[in-house]
Amino acid sequence: MKKEIHPKYDVAIISCACGNVVHTRSTKKTINVEICSNCHPFFTGKQKFVDSEGRVEKFMRKYKGEKK
Question: Cys staple from 16: which of 20, 26, 49, 52, with CB 3.0 to 4.6 Å?
């Protein structure tokens, strides 16, 4: 590799809005994120499926009993 053309690759701190802090390596010293794996609903299991218009029930009534 050529010298003096690559960015410095140092220890970085990633801070989430929920307060979670992750230490890693990057060309940036600090990275601020709004959501991480500790607070994202998909990873925490607190994900809610909202069906306000009853689309699932409508689908189930329409195709109930049909088998291919």
Answer: 20
3-class DSSP assignment, residue 5? coil
Question: Whose CA is closest to 39, among 55, 16, 21?
Answer: 16
Cα–Cα distance for residue pair 57/55, rounded to 1 Å = 5
Q: Which residues of 31-42 are buried (b: 16+ CB within 10 A; e: fewer)?
A: eeeeebeebeee
User: pLDDT tens per residue, the chain (68 residues)?
Assistant: 688 898 899 999 999 988 999 999 999 999 999 888 888 777 777 766 665 667 778 888 888 866 55
- Determine how β-strand 21-26 pairs with β-strand 10-16: antiparallel
Q: What is the pTM of this model?
A: 0.56
